[in-house]
Amino acid sequence: MARLTLRGYAKHRGCSLGAVQYALKVGRIRRLRDGLIDADVADRQWKARTDAVRSEAGKRSADYRKAEDRKRGPDPVADMLNRARAASASFRARIDEFEFLKLSQQMIPIEDHRKAASESGRRVKLLLQNMGDRVGPLVAGRDVPDAVRLINEEAARILEELSAPSNNGHGKP
């Protein structure tokens, strides 16, 4: 005598939990007092209280529907709907990925990037534009190697300043 839960008995019979619950509801099988099902007794009850003709007719009609579906071939509307659902899910996943990257600060909005690039360009322009004014008086009257050294030092200072973040967040040196 195997005592099983409803799910256990459904697995034992190879049917759904809903089928076992329906069999209990209509009186096809009975539970024990503790709520479990005696598998041997329930199997005999199920067999004795099931109309074999109706049971076979149900199986045949399901088989018939499957065969008809195979004859008809693929349903173009269903295929189109499935493709649309897949595209929608893919699009939603890409949006979610972009939102995650943005929230985790791995991605910045394009306008922020453009603004930062513009400010960096402006900063480079100002530093290089004024280089002559700063270096001119230093190199006046010097020999060529000394003038080249001073120009290189000023260029290195400018590059060092450009590689550092801006002081006030506005791109001004």
Structure characterization notes:
With 173 residues, the chain is mostly helical. The chain folds into 3 domains: 70 residues, no CATH class; 34 residues; 54 residues, no CATH class. Helix 7 runs antiparallel to helix 8. The termini are far apart. The C terminus is likely disordered.
Written as H for each helix and E for each strand, in order along the chain, the element string is EHHEHHHHHH
- Using DSSP, what is the number of strands? 2
Largest sheet: spatial strand order = 1-2
What is the percent of helical residues? over 70%
Instruction: Give the DSSP E fraction (strand runs of 2 or more residues).
Output: under 5%
Q: What is the gyration radius calculated from CA atoms? A: 41 Å
The major pleated sheet works out as: 2 strands, antiparallel
Averaged pLDDT: 84
Count of individual domains: 3
The outline comes out as: rod-shaped
- Report the end-to-end length measured between terminal Cα atoms: 89 Å
In DSSP terms (H or I, runs of 4 or more residues), the helix count works out at 8
Low-pLDDT parts are: 168-173
Helix/sheet category: mainly alpha
